[in-house]
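As a warm-up, study this chain.
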Amino acid sequence: MSLEKNVIEEQSINEVNYELLKKQFPHAVSIDENGRYVIDPQKLQMSLDPSLAEIKEDGYGLNWVGKKEAYHNAFTKNYKVLKPLKDDSKNWDETENILIKGDNLDALKILRQNYFESIKMIYIDPPYNTKNDGFVYNDNFTTSTEQTLEELGYDKEYIDYIENIQGAKTHSGWLSFMYPRLLLAKDLLKDDGLIFISIDDNEVAQLRLLCNEIFAEENFVGEFIWQKASGNQNDSNSIAISHEYILCYCKSIEKLSLYNLPPTKEMLKTYNLEDEFVSTRGKHYLRNLNDFSIGDRPGLHYDIICPDGTILKGNEYRWRCDIHTFNWRIKENRIIFEKNVSGWQVFYKQYINETKEEIIKDKNGNILSYGKTADSLLLKIASTGDGKKDIKSIFGDAIFSYPKPVKLLNHLLKITTKDNDLILDFFAGSGATAHAVMDLNAQDNGNRKFICVQWAEKTPEKSEAKKAGYETIFDITKARIDKAGDQIAKGDIGFRTFEIVEDQKQKIYQKSLEEVNQDDLLSLMEKPDISSNEEILYNLFIAETLPLSTKHQELIKDKLYLASNVAFILGDITSDELVEALKDKKECEYITVYSPNISNDKFTLEIESNISKLGIKSDKLRFRG
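Now compare it with the structure written out below.
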């Protein structure tokens, strides 16, 4: 312990342990009204082994039927790999943006390995579970599913119930769909990261409870009300629904940072005066200290002495602040006295950068921007009609239903992200989030990057999308990002595309001995079925927690690659070739060997002693595959 440390301010062991548990298991630990630390053993058991958790599941809500199975589904081993699709990409060698084709649950499991606690902002627009959105819970109920449920402790009655809700529109099914995805999403957020989730009345109550459990209730940031229309839509039997919700949660309320919106033209017109404090407080306007329109309180009546000794009697005036605030404003040179034919008037200076916003400064301390604190009411920002216009401007026709407007997403990006932040949307839909990221970068010269995930859901027959030649929603996603980038034509407008595919050998490993056939055995004897070294390389990036946007050098064709601080050996090379290729690569700190492609046993045995010539220790050597 440092001798300079203030022991009084040190946290107790209990406080330290509580914070550690709270970060990992926010739903299982709390502090009661008496300040005592409390652990819910069953909720903690859910996080460790749901099969042993004794949680009553008797309806939808936090204890809906199928909850343990949904939790289990989030953290079961992933047997999928990523296949790079260069022909479906744009500016592959330059871009840092990522587009993934496939089921978002599989994608999140993969991304959790190399983007753990790396995402600043997540925005998703999931199915609303309404009669019009086409959502039904996964109807792939198999023998292995039933076996899993038995292992998790479900009895026959509950297994039958879960099977019956497959393919049906139920709250339980929707919760089981969202639960594992949000659990994984939480792990991807940085400590100061946030998630925004669009939803409507149908599931907003359930979603709020679910997020309280996953992200912890104290990490609830706010519920935005988005005015999506002018109120002339008959979405219910009795009233015209003109709004939706956007729930916002953060990873850690202690680390939360939100930026203010840039000042509007109207604000700049209002805040147009300068004084000696302009460099720190910004511009200001004068506001009359006397106002009889505000509520009357005894503390607002006091005498004020003007510069010539005139006393403004408190019984004749109602000031906007109490005497203590007035005296502070006098001391801080914030009060202005003006005399006209009617007598003395008292004003106070309202500074533009004192509206709870964060001041953005350059290296010299000069204010670059300040603005209005974000409001929970998103009124007249953008409508569903604007989302349709965005689509029409790209495709010439409304080929996608209910896309979120770029202006709305830009609004959320402005209050959440800066510079090189990474944004994830795993319900990418038409690609509006990617469009918004590129658009905002073009506006403020930012370098935000996006990761978007969309599965190849078939477009409806006779739909405008099908008529236009788009067979899947993913085709629309990719086309929009591509075309929007061409329109923006500034900054990083490219994307690397990957597809989630089955790892056939891993599927065989999952089979029981009775299920394995001759073809399976022959397949296991063959070299890896991953189709190219590049495909192997990008999946090794995941194993080594490197971003999918990582650039790499091919040092020896088809055999040796260098990416970031890791050298990847993907084929047979000699020890001399390895040492020669890496001797000048000072950035190389780790060696990863893809074992299935190495047939030279001698090389494998000698590699530890050979990499020592490069100053790389054996604990920096890894064998994969």
